[in-house]
Amino acid sequence: MIRGSMVALITPFNEDGSVNYDKLRELVEWHIAEQTDAILVLGTTAETPALTITEEDEIARISIETAAGRVPIIVGSGSNNTMIAMEQSIKYEKMGADALLVITPYYNKTNKAGMVNHFYTVADAVNIPIYVYNVPGRTGVSLTYEALAEISKHKNIVGIKEASGDMSFITKISRLITDDFNVYCGNDDISIPLMSMGGAGIISVLANILPRQTHEMAMAYLEGDVKKAADMQKYYLDFINALFIETNPIPIKEAMNLVGMNVGGYRMPLCPMEEDTKAKLIETMKAIDLL
């Protein structure tokens, strides 16, 4: 059971729009040095819908190879096609992934039985841990408590990345937390409130630019220093909100480039920030001495 801060890693691009695999290796090494507790590749923040299967496979391979067991690598393998999700999950397990992130099947909008069967089919096909990913703002479908209660019983399903932002729902699903299943925050603005309900950590966009601080905030709470964790959550809140002032990962990549991390641009249909929202981002970065 991973505890602490897991970065939802961006995908770096070269000027010509190709994936910058050298920068990817550099980012993995940097996160290890900065005490990130696990690295998630091929999630939403990675612009996965705009990547080819070949690129996804190479990102997973390089990340696993570079980490070399020093930090867990979680690979996004989900799809709204159950068979593809199963095939990708098997592939990444064979590559050496430590765990998988599997999103709820979007667009199809299945019922409870279909949702449960989707995750059971994928989980039955592998022997490594799976984290369910609930992000209704992206998918147009949300897990119900009843479906998650069933899904969480599978021995290979060890947690959920909960990104609905609904604290009422989070409170309800926290009743499912056991030694074998936990809840992870997928919204940086409520990471400490979610952890107060028993959550084990954060799957973070913020950690792309402030990995050590995000780790320290999560561990402060987990080690009992609630005041420090809460103070850090509040201190970074305006910047966190600015990271979602436009569609993720546009603002986080903009912020990383502003501080000289040179992670490149975006894949269409994503594009650079508008000038007014960029100005707000810069203002919040200056407020926390990032610029």
TrEMBL record:
Recorded metabolic or biological pathway in which this protein acts: Amino-acid biosynthesis; L-lysine biosynthesis via DAP pathway; (S)-tetrahydrodipicolinate from L-aspartate: step 3/4
Keywords: Amino-acid biosynthesis, Cytoplasm, Diaminopimelate biosynthesis, Lyase, Lysine biosynthesis, Schiff base
Record Pfam families: DHDPS
GO molecular-function term, one example from the UniProt record: 4-hydroxy-tetrahydrodipicolinate synthase activity
Compartments reported by the entry: Cytoplasm
Gene3D superfamilies in alphabetical order: Aldolase class I
Reactions listed under catalytic activity: L-aspartate 4-semialdehyde + pyruvate = (2S,4S)-4-hydroxy-2,3,4,5-tetrahydrodipicolinate + H2O + H(+)
Superkingdom classification of source: Bacteria
Positions that bind pyruvate: T45, I203
EC number: 4.3.3.7
UniProt-annotated catalytic positions: Y133 (proton donor/acceptor), K161 (schiff-base intermediate with substrate)
Enzymatic class: lyase
InterPro entries: Aldolase_TIM, DapA, DapA-like, Schiff_base-form_aldolases_AS
Example GO biological process: lysine biosynthetic process via diaminopimelate
Positions marked as site (Part of a proton relay during catalysis): T44, Y107
Main function: Catalyzes the condensation of (S)-aspartate-beta-semialdehyde [(S)-ASA] and pyruvate to 4-hydroxy-tetrahydrodipicolinate (HTPA).
Known partners and oligomeric status: Homotetramer; dimer of dimers.
Family (UniProt): Belongs to the DapA family.
Protein name: 4-hydroxy-tetrahydrodipicolinate synthase
Native organism: Hominibacterium faecale
